[in-house]
Amino acid sequence: MSESPIPEKTPQPDIMLPDPKKLILSASPHIQCADTVPGIMRTVLLCLIPPAAASIYFFGFHAVRILLLTTLFCMAFEWICCKLAGKTSTLGDYSAALTGVLLAMNLPPGVPWWICLIGSFIAIVVAKAIYGGLGQNPFNPAAVARVALLVGFAGPMTAWVTPCQGFFPDEGKAPAAIQVHETERKPDFTTGATPLSLAKMAKTPEEIQALQTPDLLKQCFFGRTQGSLGETSALAVLIGGIALILLKIISWHIPAAMLGTTLIFTWIVSKADPSLTPGPVFHLCSGGMMLAAFFMATDMVTSPTTRRGKLIFGSSIGIIACVIRIWGGYPEGVSFAILIMNALVPLIDRICYKRPFGWHPSSAAAYTMRRGEVK
Amino acid sequence: MSLPPHVARFTGGIHPMDGKGLSNGIPARTAPLLEKYLVPLHQNIGAPPKLTVTKGELVKKGQRIAEPGGFVSVPLHAPTSGTVGNLTEVPGVAGNTLQAVEILSDGKDEWGSGLDPIVPWQEADRKVLKQRVADGGIIGMGGAAFPAHVKLSPPPEKTIDTLIVNGAECEPYLTADHRLMLERTEAVLEGAAIAARILDVDRIFVGIEENKPDAVEAMKKAAGAFGIQIVPLPVRYPQGAEKQLIFAITGRAVATGGLPMDVGCVVQNAGTCAAIRDAVVEGHPLIERYTTVTGTPVVHPGTWIFRVGTPVKEALKLAGGVREQPAKLILGGPMMGFAQSSMDVTVTKNTSGILLLAGGETGRYLSSPCIRCGRCVSVCPMRLLPGPISVMVECENYALAEHNFVMDCMECGACTFVCPAKRPLVQHFRRAKAEINAIRRARKKH
Amino acid sequence: MSTTFLAAVCVVGIIGLILGCLIAFTAKKFDVEADPKVEKVRELLPGANCGGCGFAGCADLADAIVNRGINPSRCTAISAEALKDLSAFLGVAAEEKEKMTAVVFCGGSLSRAARKAQYNGIMDCRSANVAGGGGKACAYGCIGYGCCARACPFGAIEMRDGLAVVHPEVCRGCGKCVTVCPRNLIRLVPASVKIHVYCSSADKPAARRKVCSAACISCGKCIRADGQGRVEKQENGTVRINCENPPDISLAETAGCPTGALQTEEAHRAIRPISPKETQK
Fold first, then answer.
1. How buried is B268 (Cβ within 10 angstroms: 0-12 exposed, 13-18 middle, 19+ buried)?
2. Within this chain, do residues B301 and B256 fall inside the same structural domain, yes or no?
3. Please, what is the end-to-end C-alpha distance for chain A in angstroms?
4. Chain A partners of C130 at a C-beta cutoff of 8 Å?
5. Which of A12, A25, A33, A42 best tests the B interface by mutation, with the highest count of B CBs <10 A?
6. Do A20 and B341 touch (CB under 8 A)?
7. Does the beta carbon of B258 lie under 8 angstroms from any beta carbon of chain A?
8. Strand partners, B355
9. CB–CB of B95 and C123 under 8 A?
């Protein structure tokens, strides 16, 4: 094998060799996948186009106004925070823009501009920048902002707008309490209250049943209902959400767990006591359930990293949201459920972490350092 | 012989680009003789060998020039006949400096190893065979550099029943083992049979990834004569990692912190097996190896047979040099190899590849925060939590990192490959391991 | 209305009283005996918890001083004034201890040191060490990513032009930087020695010059100029000032060091980025 031939003459002088000073020195590995954080955020924004487009279709100018305002305010606050902290601007990773769009999806179309401002401030400064920026926040920024606005500014946060009234629709007013004559009429999701508010106010099985006619359910699914920008069209959100899963941005675990649990739970409750709440289809298609399942609960920073943990996380959100919807004080409970489970994410990850490959009880002896002993 | 094994799937793993098309169809070429070889002394894990020749001494090809420095050490041999030159220094792969001895070639390239062929080895004493493996200076040629005779000397309380030959070559771009198995099929198989005889086992498997169908075919054809079973493996990085390979073929999981011999297995690289065969059957110690010189900036990529001590500069000249300035020069594969900053580094016994990457092909690390996306967790073949551990290391909380099993990380790089935030995860873990080992050493002293 | 008000005030007042008594009782019952002397000593110590004394923080040292007979001069971070006060309080004479300062024995700033490659990775010296050793060509020199500066509890180390430089007036001699440097370039020396050879390269002298224009090339000029053995060549080829018997700082001018590796501490601290033209001597 190694009988050498006659030594060759020195190679031709025009062979180019690398200049070592221009080489890059780094630890292994030396190849990486093409995904980047800005790329992921951009893809999520792309998948938010169907719900955003649907909201513009239904609410016209109001949707455009809110989308623009929240996005601009969020980006502005992020830039200010970076400046104050002396860091280079992180606008390039698109996370502020994404928070802005998600916040818009959570706001009713009739909110005044200053709600957008306060919401953006809470989302970016209070829920994210104070913790150290991207990757450090324990709670979903858009959910925090929405809940804070809901609790602090309940009036403006129920400024519903009648859908499909042209590009400049009038703002409708939310009824403070359901009028007697409203329950005698057939419920209408396009004027007056949102589907979930009507479900909360309905007391008898007949009223509940009246909310679940095929026409009304179709309205919930396709979107001609009152509600926040991202809450009307379940179909648009579903399209965007499935695109997210197919593009491998999020895994199927959280949406499947959340929607599956909601389905089973509401089916059981509605069968057990028909006067309490409508059935699973209604719950899946109304309110922020779809939006939360695909875009809010799946926020990477605030959800578990392990796959088992994601399933537990998703199912718990589903149950808590349904409990609040059925027995709680608010008609919609998904945002609260998300925040409650965000707080439990470190615990979930701790419980769900499997042992390393080949772990054996005898290997515990190899781990001699006790926590806190060396720092 | 045992029943065909059911190939088990290990969790995690990634599919980086293949890159082997650049060189896997080209037969290996023998590198022409150089005028000077710079043979590093300390190429193996364990004690460095001690030089036994002096400047000006005449040596023959394969003659011993350094004695082993202990049990976990191997001798060193002259790559060609000629004169011993100065004791000098060459850069090591990890940025360190190695002592190296110059061998000035006399052009005659005459063998003189002093080792007689042991034929027929089937009847030779096992201890004699094992001593020959030690005398041949053979170390793990897949990159581990562990002395082969030590691997073939498990303590008596460990019962070994399986020998696994690692022909997986899961790293992208590398084709050295591929060409070796195609061109020296019988040598690899015979070497495996010799190793099995030393260990006294009769279950021998060769794991080969399915992206080398011609090698699988060639090996299957010849394997029957030796009683060896060829196991095609699914293509997934790091299929060739020892623990994952053992799990795939035998279904046994090596305990964390443990060794393959704990589950009755010994793993040897295909190149190591061929070297064992050469040492036993021909009396030729380890002085050369198959190495892939590849990468898109290389003018003529391919596989070469280099003598130990060939400067990388000469190796690249043989491959026609580069057509543009590369971004990285890597010894080894792109996932676990070492980036180099000097052209004076040499080919050693475990250099499986010389890889050049262009600017667009190599990633750039950023100091960005972990966004907890969890991709690293899903690809880690050791089922660790790379992202959270890297945050612990950044906060210098090494106790917590050890508690989260960072010492079991095999630095395969799968997590860093998928990280969208481009965090240098493997560097964090290497740092953590260095700190934890330093603390353990300091504790032992007190 | 007023009776309800009165009732509320009384109830809350009584609850407050009961709880207050409970707190006072538990405070007395579970009180931990604190030696007031140890407390006072602890107040007089600098409170930096730097560990330079070898004990686990200032509280531990205070306890050791009072109860285990440790001399207060064991604290390296204490100022001379405070040491006087502490000794006076204890009625113990403080041992005379020479003030030590840390020195980084390297002059390879970015202007003087050659580069070997472009480093891409964690900007920390110990991390760079496991990934090929950073961007500078010298394998023995300061990597320059600030590990020691971050480790110093007093902020005494400044990164100037990619080289760590210690400010002796801030340095308290605690030794944290010594343990953290991956190249073992930092040593604690008496603060009174103001002239050093700022190079630790154990390379062959010819090779040293190639990688850094500030390297000591072991030419021996300073050893001969001194003539009294106060500058010594070490076993590994480096040249060191004898800190027990140091030469006068004028040696830096009279020796004629060809690279400037022999420098006064003041001149060394004046390191600033210089253009490539100036480095060509």
1. buried
2. no
3. 55
4. 27
5. A33
6. yes
7. yes
8. B294, B330
9. no
Backbone φ, ψ for residue B326 (5° rounding)? -80, 165
Chain A residues closer than 8 Å to C132 by CB = 25-27
- What count of Cα atoms within 13 Å lies in the side-chain half-sphere of residue B100? 27
Which chain C residue has the Cα nearest residue B341? C117
Would the CB atoms of B385 and A305 count as touching at under 8 Å? Answer: yes
User: For chains A and C, what is the number of CB pairs under 8 angstroms?
Assistant: 32
The answer to whether the CB atoms of B427 and C139 lie below 8 A apart is: no
The complex's ipTM works out to 0.90
Average pLDDT of the segment spanning C211-226: 91
- Quote the tokens at residue B79: 């790559």
Which domains, ranges and CATH numbers included, belong to chain C?
A: 36-90 (1.10.15.40), 100-279 (3.30.70.20)
Question: Which chains form contacts with chain A, at 3 or more CB pairs under 8 Å?
Answer: B, C
Sheet holding B162-167, edge to edge: B229-233, B203-209, B162-167, B265-269
**Residue at token pair 């006067």:** A275
- Contact assignment for B305 to A306 by CB distance below 8 Å: no
The answer to the question of residue B15 being in a domain is no
* Residue B178 placed within a domain: yes
pLDDT above 90 (res B129)? yes
Do B52 and B321 contact (CB within 8 A), yes or no?
Answer: no
**Looking at B252, B282, B312, which one is the last position of a domain?**
B282
Range of the domain at B328: 29-113+286-357
Chain A residues 174-213 with a CB less than 8 Å from chain B: none
Tell me which chain A residues have a C-beta less than 8 angstroms from the C-beta of C115.
21
Interface of C with A in 241-280 (CB under 8 A): none
Asked whether B69 and B49 are in contact (CB, 8 A), the reply is: yes
Closest by Cβ to A301, choosing from B14, B371, B396: B371
Q: Which residue has the higher pLDDT, B33 or A8?
A: B33
Q: Which pLDDT does position C32 carry in this prediction?
A: 84
SS (H, E, C) B268-307: EEHHHHHHHHHHHHHCCCCCEEEEEEECCCECCCEEEEEE
Joined together, the tokens standing for residue C276 give 């490539």
- C27-52 pLDDT, tens digit per residue, is 999 988 878 888 888 888 888 888 88
Do B57 and B161 share a domain, yes or no?
Answer: no
Task: Give domain status of residue B14, yes or no.
Answer: no
Q: B290 and B235, same structural domain? A: no
Find how far residue A229's CA is from the centre of its chain: 14
Q: What is the tens place of the pLDDT at every residue in A93-123?
A: 899 999 999 999 999 998 999 999 999 999 9
CB contact (8 A) between residue B405 and residue A303: no
Question: B175: domain CATH number?
Answer: 3.40.50.11540
- Asked whether B325 and A22 are in contact (CB, 8 A), the reply is yes
Burial B269-295 (b: 16+ CB within 10 A, else e): bbbbbbbbbbbbbbbbbbbbbbbbbbb
From B296, B324, B357, the end of a domain falls on B357
- In this model, does residue A184 exceed pLDDT 50? no
**How does pLDDT run across C110-166, given as a tens digit for each residue?**
999 999 999 999 999 999 999 988 899 999 999 999 999 999 999 999 999 999 999
Q: Across the interface, do B370 and A30 touch by the CB < 8 Å criterion? A: no
- Residues A304/A349, Cβ–Cβ less than 8 Å: yes
As a whole number of angstroms, the distance between CA C181 and CA C143 comes to: 9
Residue A1 CA neighbour count, 13 Å, CB half: 24
Beta-carbon separation of B426 and A27 below 8 A = yes
Among A205-219, B130-144, B200-214, C179-193, the minimum mean pLDDT is found in A205-219
The band of B7, judged by pLDDT with boundaries at 50, 70 and 90, is confident
Closest of A227, A231, A110, A232 to residue A172, by C-alpha? A110
- Under DSSP, the state recorded for B119 is -
